[in-house]
Amino acid sequence: MATTPSSAVGTNPAITGLESTFAEQLSALAVPWQGADAPDPRLLVVNEPLAISLGLDVDVLRSVDGVEVLSGASAPVGATPVAMAYAGHQFGGYTPLLGDGRALLVGELVGDNGERVDLHLKGSGPTPFSRGGDGFAAVGPMLREYLVSEAMHALGIPTTRALSVVATGRDIRRTGAEPGAVLARVAASHLRVGTFEFAVRQGEVLQTLADYAIARHYPALTELPTEKRYLAFFDAVVEAQAALVAQWMLTGFVHGVMNTDNTTISGQTIDYGPCAFLDSFDPAAVFSSIDQGARYAFGNQPAVLKWNLARLAETLLTLIDSTPDDAIAAVTTVLDSFDERFQRHYAAGMSAKLGVGGEKIDPALIDDLLALMTTHSADWTGTFRALAGELRGESTALDVLIPREQLGSWLTRWRSELARYDRDDAADAMDAVNPLYIPRNHQLDAALKAATNGDLAPFEKLLEIVTHPFDRRDDWADYATPAPPVFSESFQTFCGT
């Protein structure tokens, strides 16, 4: 196990062509480090389509050399892995130094679409940022991130993705002994609001970081004059995050740990620790065992995202204008636009979910449906599929969710809205955007428990289903139903740290 810094260049031939622009241009935000040895590494799952899109040889990844790289035990040829430094507000409280306490940035790959992505390991052992932790991760949480991130990708939601999970052969201590694992994650980058919160206190590196983030994620802004560039950058991040959280809300996704170090500059979803999906619709839903104050409840997510973006704004003030009052006024104007942006994305998404399409839907129609769903604890995912069935004359599924005598007047208004826009194809259009299968909490929980005990079959089947979220199959019917109440009443999620 590495206990001292390592700057040796990797020699493992399993992955070639890695670049290290972050480590080279922002060395003040990175510490060269080596992952821990894996006593008995074994590949549990590898994402073949993702690997191929990145120009990687799947057979080589499955080899002894490949598994060593994916476990963090050895570095790819030419690569110098680093632990990234960042700060962050966690549950509202500021921590000046967090960083990759159990993770390494191996390097960067350029995929077949020409986009640069990070190859990052999670659970690869202790680093200088471990803060007393052991630096490792367990099989269950790493498979959770793999499956949920791939489900989100299949749903069209911006997200980091999973390349592989390797069991290390090392037991780690949590509530008891659990098998250890390493996740290989692919991301547009790992730049976070927390990265800027750390850099702003490091002097000149802040502008270098901002320029790097702009060039990597919003390259069109490099054409702007300096005096306009950084405000435009903030505006772009606000727009990306407003669109992202709207998609979370439309899908019933609860992130669970929306700290500023888990808010990306790229607008991708990152860190699938205590995440969950709604069964019964409840704006106050909280699943995370550590969110005692319900800060990150489902319905709070847009407001929290706006709060996190305010923290990003604070770090950019000196770049935006040399006059503090003018800088504050400029970022405040942009930040104040967040609510309208979110509502625009959310309304457009709800319009599509209800079959109206790109037209502007009556906001009261949305609000009244959500009120009915809350009152009757209606299943979020199932309700929208049942509404499409209603248009086809299939009323049974909807009647189970919300009593007809309660829903009747709303249905009349909804049908009038569809008629106003002449949407005869509404049912098919709704099925194209409303998933039938999501990672149901009880099914994911069961699959992860089986995998922890060595049986990957339930995980593999659930993975296949949630990565085809719109494709109805009769033999998958059980995967479209919510958890039984006895499960939901006591279900909690955990960070897995």
What would you say about this model in short?
This protein is an alpha+beta fold and 497 residues long.
Fold and architecture overview:
With 497 residues, the chain is of the alpha+beta class. Among the domains are: 21-189, no CATH class; 194-346, no CATH class. The protein is built from 19 helices and eleven strands. Strands 2-8-9-7-6 form a five-stranded antiparallel beta sheet, with helices on both faces. It has a two-stranded antiparallel sheet with strand order 1-3. It has a two-stranded antiparallel ribbon with strand order 4-5. A hairpin with a 2-residue loop joins strand 4 and strand 5 (93-95). Helix 5 crosses helix 17. It is globular. The model has no long low-confidence stretch (mean pLDDT 95).
SSE layout and pairings?
Elements lengths: L20 H5 L4 E3 L9 E5 L1 H6 L4 H4 L2 H8 L10 E3 L3 E3 L2 E3 L7 E8 L5 E7 L16 H16 L6 E13 L3 E11 L5 H7 L5 H13 L8 H26 L1 E2 L21 E2 L23 H20 L3 H13 L1 H16 L9 H13 L4 H12 L4 H6 L2 H17 L5 H8 L7 H12 L4 H10 L18 H4 L9
Antiparallel strand pairs: 1-3, 2-8, 4-5, 6-7, 7-9, 8-9, 10-11
Helix pairs in contact: 5-17, 5-18, 6-9, 8-9, 8-10, 8-11, 9-10, 12-15, 13-16, 17-18
